[in-house]
Design brief:
This protein has 927 residues and is an alpha+beta fold. Helices cover 35% and strands 17% of the residues. The strands form 5 sheets. The protein has a 10-stranded mixed beta sheet with strand order 3-4-5-12-13-14-15-23-24-26, with helices on one face. Strands 7, 8, 16, 17, 18, 19, 20, 21, 22 and 25 form a 10-stranded mixed beta sheet that branches. It has a 6-stranded antiparallel beta sheet with strand order 2-1-30-10-9-27. The longest helix has 28 residues, at 226-253. The two termini are 39 Å apart.
Length: 927
């Protein structure tokens, strides 16, 4: 028998009315009675973890819980009564409680808010032991506290088989969802909800792969990596065998995820229907989703061109270019840096004279349509809106890069050993995208998380005497080419020859199910591919018709990174900072990688950074001509020359490292906008720098620094003081403005946190000040900049960088209830402009003064006028409510929701801006 029943769900299982009616049927009542019989497991003592060098000082957590599968009965009970399957939610409470408990934290209390991440399971903490499929070469032990699988194998095949089996137990439905997302087939599989349409469109536009493309990635990764490539293939096959063994067992035993019934793939009464086995190409489809979400920086060149054209139209070519460059902040001298010891790593810098630039003619740009032949709900207004949002996300340079890291050298810690608090900020989902596990076997020794369906290796976590983590770096590995059209709209010039584009299509249709009641519909997604990548826009350049294509270095290469992850799990490979850096050099996703052992810390920025032709400006489209291609580029394999490892930002044993998706190093241009004087990375930098200056850093102090930054309002902490300085440059006589200023100043003095009055109160201290700033920020930004920039340029620049991303914002790149906040916004622009108006020194100022046209008194009038307007806005107007929150509920508007990807729902928690999976580590010894 399996260790316990499985739990999962689809995207639209948010229809309590339908489910309530469904629950009333007699057949379901019978099913619940029949499916609730407990499944027991024999217990066994865990082996002593003699290979663990952390001394009990490694901790981790990932909410809501390890168990991401649920039977139909468990889903129905959750929907009706809120009951939770075992281990579905037991990490959510400790994770949430840190927000109110960090101020009194001690080392002894850390595992009140985190899991003990030591290797192995104490004998009295073993909840279950199983030999998957009766194998004698692998054992899966589950611990009582969290239900995390501890997989121990005596053979490599058995170890990976166990990893696959455990993945099926914990995330089968989610894995199935995302292999369909990666193929652009989500609506056919899970239903035609607008959100499903948008999600599959977003990824299909970026990775329109055929089955042959997916297989070619596997073949190339194996062929190009020698013995490690062959081992990766063997590991993947064993892993798949484990997944498929679990599918067969759960199907015949009828404890498979209930979402398969609710979406019409299985019959609850007869058990008719199938759950398709996984295959190697499914893993590549999954990897393409993860790589696109978190590991691909760049793009946005067409939007950059449009805002440059608007700036030049407003100010003239010379001054307009200066204005544009000042807002772009390619290499802002005031930006917080991860490598801050003065090292320079030039990449993507502005050429003296740009070559091959292909800016569109004004007004000529149109987005390439993806959806064709839509019928039914595929052609509805909600579908159209979802398609527009998906297109904007797919083609933007503002990727969903999140995550943070705080790492301090042993020279500045109380113990003399490095301390690290780090993790990926991957959003909040139910089930969680990440699953936690420990794997011990020949050539593998690690504990940590992996994305569901890719857990043959631990992707972020710890080894025997080292830990590693990553944040999204976002350097530019995507370029936009203008290919000149010939013959018709579907032929283009390639090296002087008129060449046909390759048409790739995915036809989807759907009908209502219990999980998703969206009416029937269908559409075809169609992508036209060129040797320079898929077509994204069409336009004219100098009167010539062109297609703008997007080419990323990881396109057709999502499978390549498996080698780097294999190395990270290999205790015979990673033994030092240098070997760690060597391992992550094999990962082509754009990530910042961090390392800590008992003696050293290290950092490396990964990604296949293409070597561009001399004179190419990475910010703008260039002509699709041989002279402007990547050096040594082969279009058949999309390979090229890449910058050597030494040219990537890297460091060993710097005094400390911080990263919150900020700028990596001097002269290293990131693709996204907003790396200026105020960035959320400053929230970490300021706190960690202070700790290091004082010395004696402990795990507790570093967790407190992270947790304190997680509740900070960046606008209030780093911009509000100067705004108040302008307002208070003269006595405030207006009573409404004076009252608002008083409230903001009180909040600022108290620390400018968005924090509950007490644990569980669901109300913020200084709530009125928070309401005022939330209302004021968009008003003041528009009033400060639009008059000077003009409507067209202001609008174009907001397309490059949203003005705000407060916790309650539904308009930012992360949406609402997502936790991550203050990554994208105009805080640096406001900061630099206000300081300029105040006459204070500004390095890298904006090209013009905007607030009040540069007049302090006029700027003050602008700020006071917008502040009065904001103060008069009701809570209901500022927080209008949604399907989770009533209008005016400030705490709820900010709150984090575990977004349902399956049938199990969880309660909302108070806002925190912190990693989803997080480690706290301090090693005491080394091999």
């Amino acid at each position: 028998m399996p260790r316990r029943t499985s739990r999962s769900t689809p995207f639209r299982l948010r229809t309590p009315g339908r489910l309530a009616g469904f629950l009333k049927t007699a057949s379901i009542c019978v099913l619940i009675a029949g499916l609730l019989s407990p499944l027991t497991q024999a217990t066994a003592a865990a082996a002593t973890a003699s290979n663990d060098y952390c001394g009990g000082q490694c901790s981790d957590i990932v909410p809501p819980g390890e168990n991401g599968n649920a039977t139909l009965a468990q889903i129905l009970l959750n929907q009706a009564f809120g009951t939770q399957p075992d281990h579905a939610e037991d990490q959510l409470g400790p994770y949430a409680n840190l927000a109110s408990g960090y101020s009194t934290l001690t080392d002894a209390k850390i595992n009140t808010f985190f899991n003990d991440a030591s290797f192995g399971v104490a004998s009295d903490q073993v909840a279950s032991t199983e030999k998957p499929a009766g194998r004698t070469d692998v054992t899966i032990v589950r611990d009582k506290k969290t239900g995390v699988p501890h997989i121990t194998g005596t053979t490599r095949y058995g170890t990976e088989f166990g990893a696959g089996y455990a993945a099926g137990e914990d995330r089968l439905w989610l894995m199935d969802l995302f292999r369909h997302v990666g193929r652009g087939q989500l609506t056919t599989f899970a239903g035609g909800a607008a959100a499903n349409q948008g999600l599959e469109q977003q990824f299909y536009r970026n990775a329109p792969y055929t089955e042959a493309d997916l297989q070619a990635q596997i073949d190339n990764a194996v062929a190009n990596n020698g013995a490690r490539g062959q081992q990766a293939l063997a590991d993947a096959n064993a892993y798949l065998a484990g997944i498929n063994s679990y599918i067969d067992a759960s199907d015949s035993g009828r404890y498979f995820p209930g979402e398969y019934v609710l979406t019409g793939h299985k019959d609850a009464v007869t058990n008719a229907g199938t759950i398709d086995h996984f295959k190697l190409t499914d893993l590549v489809a999954l990897a393409s989703v993860i790589g696109s979400l978190f590991g691909s920086g760049g793009g946005g060149e067409v939007n950059n061109a449009l805002s440059l054209i608007a700036a030049q139209s407003k100010y003239g070519v010379e001054e307009g270019t200066k204005v544009w460059e000042s807002f772009r902040e390619r290499n802002d001298p005031e930006a917080v840096l991860t490598v801050h010891d003065g090292q320079s790593f030039p990449y993507g810098t502005k050429p003296v004279t740009a070559q091959g630039e292909a800016l569109p003619d004004a007004g000529s740009v149109t987005t390439e349509p993806l959806v064709h032949d839509a019928t039914g709900t595929g052609a509805s207004q909600s579908a159209t809106t979802a398609a527009e949002q998906a297109t904007a996300t797919a083609l933007s340079s503002a990727k969903r890069g999140m995550s943070n890291a705080l790492v301090v050298s042993g020279k500045y810690t109380a113990s003399g050993h490095p301390v690290a608090v780090f993790g990926p900020q991957t959003g909040y989902f139910a089930p969680q995208l990440l699953m936690l596990q420990e794997i011990q076997g020949p050539g593998i020794s690690a504990r940590g998380v992996s994305f569901a369906g890719l857990s043959m290796y631990v992707e972020l976590g710890r080894g025997q005497d080292y830990s590693w983590s990553a944040t999204t770096s976002g350097q530019d590995i995507i370029d936009t080419y203008a290919v000149e059209l010939c013959q018709d709209d579907y032929h283009y010039l390639y090296h002087g020859t008129c060449t046909a584009m390759d048409k790739v299509e995915q036809k989807n249709s759907w009908k209502p199910t219990t999980a998703d009641g969206t009416a029937a519909g269908s559409y075809t997604m169609r992508v036209w591919r060129t040797k320079y990548g898929p077509v994204a826009y069409r336009a004219t350049v100098g009167g010539k018709k062109v297609a703008y294509t997007t080419l990323r270095s990881s396109y057709l290469h999502e499978a390549d990174s498996i080698i780097g992850f294999q190395m990270l799990n290999d205790p015979d490979y990673v033994k030092s900072p240098q070997t760690f850096q060597s391992a992550v050099q094999h990962i082509n996703y754009t990530f910042n990688w961090f390392y800590a052992d008992s003696q050293h810390t290290a950092y490396y920025n990964s990604g296949d950074n293409p070597v561009r032709a001399s004179g190419v400006d990475t910010e703008f489209p260039v002509w699709g001509q041989a002279a402007y291609e990547w050096r040594n580029w082969d279009p058949a394999t999309n390979t090229a020359a890449y910058t050597p490892a030494a040219q990537h930002p890297n460091s060993i044993d710097q005094d400390y490292y911080v990263s919150w998706n900020n700028k990596q190093a001097l002269d290293y241009t990131t693709a996204g906008w907003g790396d200026g004087s105020v960035h959320r990375g400053n929230l970490l930098e300021d706190r960690v720098k202070k700790l290091v200056a004082a010395g004696g850093v402990t795990r507790t102090k570093l967790v407190q620094a992270m947790a304190d930054a997680a509740l900070a309002d960046l606008r209030a902490e780093d911009v509000l003081p100067d705004l108040l300085k302008v307002i208070n440059s003269s006595t405030v006589t207006d009573s409404t403005a004076a009252a608002a200023v008083g409230k903001l100043q009180t909040w600022l003095t108290a620390g400018a946190k968005r924090k509950e009055t007490s644990a569980g109160s669901k109300a913020y201290a200084d709530s009125d000040a928070i309401r005022i700033l939330d209302a004021w920020w968009p008003l003041l930004v528009k009033a400060e900049f639009q008059p000077g920039l003009g409507g067209d340029l202001y609008t174009a620049l907001t397309a490059n960088l949203p003005i705000d991303e407060s916790p309650s914002a539904g308009h930012g790149p992360t949406g609402s209830h997502a936790g991550s906040s203050f990554q994208f916004g105009w805080w640096s622009y406001v900061d630099k402009d206000i300081r300029s108006v105040l006459g204070e020194p500004v390095k890298g100022p904006l090209a013009e003064k905007y607030c009040g046209g540069g007049s302090l008194s006029d700027c003050r009038d602008t700020l006071i006028g917008t502040l009065k307007e904001a103060a008069g806005m009701s809570a209901s107007a500022v927080y209008p409510g949604d399907d989770l929150c009533s209008a005016g509920d400030q705490w709820c508007a900010d709150s984090i929701n575990q977004r349902t990807l399956g049938g199990i729902k969880h309660h909302t928690i108070s806002w925190q801006n912190r990693p989803t999976f997080q480690q706290v580590v301090e090693y005491t010894s080394h091999r």
